[in-house]
Amino acid sequence: MALVRVLDFRQDEHGDWLAVLSCGHTQHLRHQPPWQNRAWVLDAQQRQAQLEKPFLCGWCATEHAASEALTERPNKDLHKER
Ligand SMILES: [Zn+2]
């Protein structure tokens, strides 16, 4: 699992909100209804309420999956050579 905590929120150059996560990554929290409905992110009080909450980091999840794939492949190749 790639559950981390929300440390802070900030806005990028386009005014889109980002969550700053305890793993060092940032994740966009775009409010684009009806696809991504995150009206709460526009409200300072509701953002404060999300601080320190667990957050599923998509970057960490991707890295985790990638590193698993990388560590699995060489092992299989070694087995083949032996
Ligand atoms: Zn992360």
Structural description of this entry:
The structure is a single chain. By secondary structure, this protein is of the alpha+beta class. Helix content is 38%, strand content 24%. It has one domain. It contains two helices and four strands. The model has no long low-confidence stretch (mean pLDDT 87). The structure holds zinc ion. Zinc ion (ZN) binds at residues 4, 21, 23, 25, 57, 59-60.
What attributes characterize this protein structure?
2 helices, four-stranded antiparallel beta sheet, binds zinc ion, 38% helix, alpha+beta
Identify the overall geometry: elongated
Going by helix content, strand content and strand pairing, the class is: alpha+beta
Number of strands: 4
**C-alpha-based Rg, rounded:** 18 Å
Strand order of the largest sheet: 3-2-1-4
- Major sheet: 4 strands, antiparallel
Question: What is the overall number of helices?
Answer: 2
Q: Write out the distinct hetero groups bound to the structure.
A: zinc ion
Low-pLDDT windows of residues: none
- What is the terminal separation in angstroms? 34 Å
Order of helices and strands: EEEHEH
Instruction: Determine the mean pLDDT.
Output: 87
Question: What is the share of helical residues?
Answer: 25-40%
Domains (count): 1
Strand content: 15-25%
Q: Layout of SSEs?
A:
Layout: E1 3-11, E2 17-21, E3 26-28, H1 44-50, E4 54-56, H2 58-81
Antiparallel strand pairs: 1-2, 1-4, 2-3
Bound molecules: zinc ion.
The site of zinc ion has 7 residues, from helix 2.
Question: Concise description?
Answer:
This protein is an alpha+beta fold and 82 residues long.
